[in-house]
Write a structure and sequence with these properties.
Layout (H helix, E strand, L loop, with lengths): L1 H8 L12 H11 L6 E5 L5 E5 L1 H8 L3
Antiparallel strand pairs: 1-2
Helix pairs in contact: 1-3
Bound molecules: glutathione (GSH).
Glutathione (GSH) binds next to loops.
Length: 65
């Protein structure tokens, strides 16, 4: 659903699969302490990175871009 919302919003994003990439799994666990997905990793470009969980919240955010 999140991927479809991103496509509808015309937002390009890198897809990271924690089940096929152990580094992505580690990054998620380091950031969130849990492996629940989806999580949107927002790189603000100034060194600040936000990890946004919850598909509904992510989809709402994508619509603001
Ligand atoms: N309320 C969350 C539910 C997320 C959720 O249940 N994710 C599942 C996969 S669809 C998951 O990551 N389960 C494994 C776990 O929580 O460790 C959302 O809508 O994003």
């Amino acid at each position: 659903m999140v991927r479809q919302a991103a496509e509808r919003a015309g937002v390009e994003m890198e897809l990271r699969d924690i089940h096929t990439d152990q580094q992505h799994m580690k990054d998620l666990l380091d950031a969130r302490g849990r492996r629940t997905v989806p999580v949107l990793r927002i790189d603000k470009g100034d060194g600040d990175v936000q990890w946004m969980p919850e598909s509904r919240e992510i989809m709402a955010y994508l619509q603001t871009l």
